[in-house]
Amino acid sequence: MGNDLYRKLGAAFLITAALIYTIERVGTLIARNYEISALYQAQMYDVQPNTHIAGFFDNIFVPILTLIGVILFVYGFPKKTK
User: Model pTM greater than 0.90?
Assistant: First the structure.
């Protein structure tokens, strides 16, 4: 019974980390597209947008939640007994 709880908690942590990462990436891409659109409207075709694309380690919660989720998920699998 306890192993099932660890697997569920591990999956919840992994899903939460993935959601945070996805929301951050989508927000960054929307901001980048808005900046590109503003540059084109200002007819500055040769200027590159300087919006930073979010990476995995940019938000401290994503790697921490992923690490906790993996540890709990792996710990939830039963150990082989002889």
Answer: no
The sign of the dihedral angle between the CA atoms of 30, 35, 40, 45 is: negative
Tokens of 64: 């921490």
CA distance 68 to 4: 16
What's the CA gap between 33 and 51, in Å, rounded?
A: 9
Tens-place pLDDT, residues 17-66 = 999 999 999 998 898 888 888 888 887 777 777 778 888 898 899 999 99
User: 3-class secondary structure for the chain?
Assistant: CHHHHHHHHHHHHHHHHHHHHHHHHHHHHHHHHHHHHHHHHCCCCCCCCCCCCCCCCCCCHHHHHHHHHHHHHHHCCCCCCC
